[in-house]
Design brief:
Layout: H1 3-18, E1 22-28, E2 38-43, H2 47-63, E3 70-72, E4 79-83, E5 87-92, H3 94-100, H4 102-105, E6 110-112, H5 114-117
Parallel strand pairs: 2-5
Antiparallel strand pairs: 1-2, 1-6, 3-4, 4-5
Helix pairs in contact: 1-2
Length: about 120
């Protein structure tokens, strides 16, 4: 894990909080996966909010010079995945979040307190 990943995670969390994301979780996956350093999981309450959350994260990270490798699910907005290589952001609707339960799947990772990113 590096400082750039931590900065990206902090910016993403700030952008999610700015648009009132629900139940933001940050999981350090660096010791259990080669996929990246952090998973950030949050949910919105409806399609419009989920898209606004995604837009805000993309804008905040873009202003800082970080461009996504890939974005999936934006049009349907039940699960938007923003892949920034070392930081992967998942924005769910409530039903999809409980169905896919990424927190359970990645329970070997370390849950990071949001205050520790700042």
């Amino acid at each position: 894990m590096n400082e750039q990943s931590k900065e990206m995670a902090r910016l993403a969390v700030d952008a999610l909080e700015d648009k009132k994301a629900v139940n933001i979780q940050v999981i350090d996956i660096s010791s259990v996966s080669i996929l990246g350093d952090y998973f950030i999981i949050a949910n919105g309450t409806n399609r419009n909010q989920i898209q606004a959350l995604s837009d805000n994260v993309e804008e905040a990270l873009g202003r800082a010079g970080f461009n996504p490798k890939q974005i999936e699910g934006y049009n349907t907005a039940n699960w938007v995945l923003l892949d920034y290589r070392d930081v992967i952001i998942h924005i769910f609707d409530p039903d999809s979040r409980s169905y896919y339960d990424l927190e359970r799947i990645w329970r070997d990772g370390k849950v990071i307190e949001i205050s520790d990113l700042k």
